[in-house]
Design goal:
The structure holds 2 protein chains of 2 kinds. Chain A is mostly helical. Helix content of chain A is 63%, strand content 4%. Chain B folds into 3 domains: 48 residues, no CATH class; 209 residues, outer membrane lipoprotein receptor (LolB), chain A, CATH 2.50.20; 103 residues, Nuclear Transport Factor 2, Chain: A (Roll). Helix content of chain B is 28%, strand content 28%. Chain B has 11 helices and 18 strands. In chain B, the strands form 2 sheets. Chain B has a 12-stranded mixed β-sheet with strand order 9-10-11-12-13-3-4-5-6-7-8-14, with helices on both faces. A 4-stranded antiparallel β-sheet of chain B has the order 15-16-17-18, with helices on one face. The relative contact order of chain B is 0.11. Classes of the chains: A mainly alpha, B alpha+beta. At the A-B interface, strand 1, strand 2, helix 1, helix 2 and helix 4 of A face helix 2, helix 3, helix 4, helix 5 and strand 1 of B.
């Protein structure tokens, strides 16, 4: 009798999108350049979702990276480098929003967005997508929605998410689990697609 | 694994880099449980709906802008440092040699029905193992110190087990746990045990008596282990699962999971059920380095009434490291009491007895403190004074009907005796006669 056999393999195609930094805080110029390459798009996307404006998101991320380099001696003992830079950007976004009128994604339109044509269309498309997704996530408790955003929109692991939002891994898992349970009832067609 | 714990841990399957070892039991459960499989599928189906088709990305010159700022910062730092110390370049060079580690994540598990990837993994690992010079394994097992190496006690704590093997024309090996040790020096084998009563007891055997270490034997010989697992999987129709994933350092791992049924005959009694890996429904999980195909870890979960219990775990494996030659010499304490088999001595013949008669005769010898008669059941070894004090003068309360269980080649005889100390002992005596003379020998249980 042949044994029943199941093989499970990883999908290697989307790995770069999920790249996570482990190891110590980048110290040299070369390390720092690599650090930026790994996190730049991810953090801009993360900041864009919080600020609703690409140019402002880029400014905030640039400032966060420069501060990360300037403070590298002070930060050399940081081990959770990825979650730490995410938290730096989240704090910077909060400060930035406090300094200006909040522009929510609902209010975002081409006329609000400075920059070239390509960037405008990119922002509009991204903002439309976020509006579509947020219509579901807004119906969840805020903490559950944030864990799901970080997992799905940022492609982060639950252990990194726990570090970023400042909770235990078990709590991150349970927020993800309960959020998903609610989304299964909210999101149309998910059941049929399964 | 039950449905409740599956649902509680479901998110582990939806994480970015699931630990292949810890999710293997989840996948196996989903295979068996349509409801949980549906739960998983429905949860998975939500995620793509939340995946944005468009994202915002950084401008193409943002990195350059940031690095320009970094350059400015470095210039300022240079100026400050040059005023303080002349060896900035040296320190910078030292810092630059430190390595960076980047995990490439993005594991997404997919199920596919392959031709035989599991057996390919087994074959590759077997080939890798055939070139090994030495292997050293540290493991932990739920068992009792001093008792046989096969014995698993799911409710007991973990006991350390350590194993070494040196390959060559005359392979040598050693397996030990507290109060029990087996060494093979290439020509012969000794087993030393220190039971709760009495001093050290020793056994000598010509050649390799690998049976003394039970199911641990194959772990020393990874090649035969995998061949055996392959055969078991084919014979039993066991479920075999292969998971490929990257660990935190980016190395590709292959995790091979085998879900096996208990072997042996339990129609008369389930006495031996769940007392060893082989006599239990269990899940064996092996982790191999995908590049070298070497075994790096193993876990065994036993299916019990309380769920799946981790009963064995390899903590560390070292390959081709020097092994202290003294570990592989047949050294024993001077006071060791050596046991000879029935073919080596002229013990009174007891082969004509039934198992029950043999048990009765053995206890009667203890009751009468007739140590000569008792030696017929012990080989040439006489009970030492402490053992004689413990067993001598006991009263037989009851001898029950013998039964067989599992894969044990001998018989179990239920007994109840009152020791001189007043203690009542009620247990099953293990006796066997699978030796050339057919002589009944006490094997355990007292």
């Amino acid at each position: 009798m042949m044994p029943e056999e199941i093989a499970i393999s990883v999908n290697t195609e989307s790995r770069p999108a999920n790249a996570i930094w482990v190891g110590r805080w980048p110290h040299t110029r070369e390390e720092f350049e690599r650090f930026i390459e790994v996190f730049l798009d991810r953090l801009v996307w993360y900041a864009f979702r919080r600020l609703g404006n690409l140019e402002e998101a880029e400014d905030v991320v640039q400032d966060a990276f420069v501060k990360a380099f300037a403070d590298r001696e002070k930060l050399r003992r940081v081990r959770q480098v990825g979650p730490y830079i995410y938290r730096m950007v989240a704090n910077a976004c909060a400060e930035h929003r406090g300094r200006r009128k909040t522009l929510s994604l609902d209010e975002l339109g081409p006329e609000d967005i400075p920059g070239n044509e390509g960037k405008v269309s990119q922002q509009i498309a991204a903002a439309d997508e976020l509006q579509r997704i947020e219509q579901y996530l807004r119906r969840l408790p805020g903490r559950q929605a944030e864990v799901i955003r970080l997992r799905v929109l940022d492609g982060l692991s639950l252990s990194d998410i726990a570090e970023i939002v400042g909770c235990s891994l078990a709590t991150a898992k349970s927020r993800f689990r309960y959020g998903l349970q609610k989304l299964r009832r909210i999101v149309p067609h998910a059941k049929e697609e399964s | 694994m039950n449905c409740r714990s599956f649902r509680k841990r479901l998110t582990e399957l939806l994480d970015i880099n699931p630990d292949s070892m810890s999710v293997a039991d989840l996948i196996l459960h989903a295979e068996d449980c349509p409801e949980c499989a549906r739960e998983l599928a429905e949860s998975r189906a939500v995620l793509p709906v939340l995946n944005p088709s468009h994202k915002a990305y950084a401008s193409s010159n943002l990195k350059e802008r940031i690095m320009n700022k970094v350059t400015d910062l470095e210039s300022v730092e240079d100026t400050r440092r040059s005023k303080r110390t002349p060896n900035r370049l040296m320190r910078f060079a030292l810092a630059a040699v430190l390595a960076l580690v980047v995990i490439i994540g993005g594991s997404r598990f997919t199920l596919r029905n392959g031709s035989s990837p599991a057996f390919e993994a087994l074959a590759q690992a077997a080939e890798a193992a055939s070139n090994l010079r030495t292997i050293h394994i540290k493991a932990n097992m739920r068992t009792i110190e001093g008792d046989n190496f096969d014995l698993i006690m799911p409710d007991e704590g973990f006991v350390p087990v350590e194993m070494w093997k040196v390959s060559g024309d005359q392979p040598k090996w050693r397996v030990e746990k507290p109060n029990r040790l087996v060494v093979m020096d290439g020509r012969s084998t000794i087993m030393l045990m220190k039971p709760g009563i009495g001093g050290t007891t020793g056994y000598r055997f010509q050649g390799s008596a690998a049976g003394l270490v039970g199911w641990l034997v194959p772990l020393l010989d990874v090649e035969s282990l995998l061949t055996k697992e392959q055969q078991t999987a084919r014979d039993q129709g066991s479920k075999v699962l292969v998971v490929e994933s990257k660990d935190s350092t980016g190395r590709l791992k292959a995790t091979l999971t085998i879900k096996a049924k208990a072997q042996g005959d339990f129609s008369q009694s389930d006495y031996l059920k769940n007392t060893s890996v082989i006599c239990s429904d269990n899940t064996r999980i092996y982790v191999f380095d995908a590049a070298t195909h070497r075994l790096e870890g193993m876990k065994v979960y036993m299916r019990t009434g309380k769920g799946d219990v981790l009963v064995f775990e390899i903590a560390d494996v070292e390959y081709d490291m020097p092994v202290d030659s003294a570990l592989l010499e047949l050294n024993a304490p001077e006071d060791t009491s050596w046991v000879k088999g029935p073919d080596e001595i002229n013990a009174p013949d007891n082969s004509w007895m039934t198992p029950k008669q043999a048990a009765e005769a053995m206890f009667r010898a203890m009751a009468n403190e007739d140590w000569g008669a008792l030696s017929a059941f012990l080989g040439s070894r006489a009970y030492d004074p402490r053992e004689q004090k413990y067993a001598g003068g006991l009263k037989i309360i009851h001898i029950g009907e013998p039964f067989k269980s599992g894969l044990y080649p001998g018989w179990f005889v239920p007994y109840e005796v009152r020791l001189k100390s007043g203690e009542i002992r009620k247990h099953n005596l293990a006796i066997r006669n699978d030796n050339p003379k057919g002589q009944w020998m006490k094997d355990g249980g007292f």
